[in-house]
Design goal:
The protein is an alpha+beta fold and 167 residues long. The chain has one domain. A hairpin with a 2-residue loop joins strand 3 and strand 4. Helix 1 runs parallel beside helix 3 and helix 3 packs antiparallel against helix 4.
């Protein structure tokens, strides 16, 4: 495959994943806003282990930096631009796993960015745990960002040792 064809494929993968994450994130958040009122008890999906609950996060990841949605939205514009620059510089030429990570990261960043601009909070709704031992409530964008971070770590740690099928 030529270098130009490889770059086009990486860009398509990057953009397609970002768009898919963004659409899934916005559709699921819209469904939650329409069907699960804030403050309502959680709706069990898989017993007590996975539940749906409508929460509004005015801060950052894991609720840090509370009441700073607009500041975080402004910071997100820089992060979004850096993701696209990184894709242009390295993602389009590097392992396809890097393009996947960057696409997931961009889609997640855009999903939460849109919420912050529209509502001055991010809609979170997935609640996992056992009994009173619960993880932070999250959404599709947060899940995509978390997966992207794991993929970045894998690419960074394995580097040239990545199997050929992952390059």
């Amino acid at each position: 495959m030529s270098d130009a064809a490889r770059r086009r494929r990486r860009w398509s993968l990057f953009a397609g994943l970002a768009a898919g994450v963004l659409i899934a994130d916005q559709l699921t958040k819209e469904w939650i806003r329409a069907n699960v009122p804030p403050g309502q008890p959680p709706v069990e999906v898989i017993g007590e282990y996975v539940r749906l609950i409508h929460t509004r996060n005015t801060g950052g990841i894991f609720g840090l930096f509370g009441e700073s949605a607009l500041v975080l939205a402004m910071a997100s514009t820089v992060v979004i631009a850096l993701i696209v620059v990184y894709q242009a510089r390295d993602g389009a030429r590097g392992p396809w796993l890097l393009a996947v990570a960057l696409g997931l990261l961009l889609g997640g960043a855009l999903g939460n960015f849109i919420d912050r601009l529209r509502f001055e909070h991010v809609t979170d709704f997935v609640d996992v745990g056992i009994g009173t031992l619960r993880w932070y409530t999250f959404n599709v964008a947060d899940a995509a960002i978390s997966i992207a971070i794991v993929l970045f770590l894998g690419v960074a740690v394995l580097g040239d040792r990545l199997p050929e099928r992952l390059r």
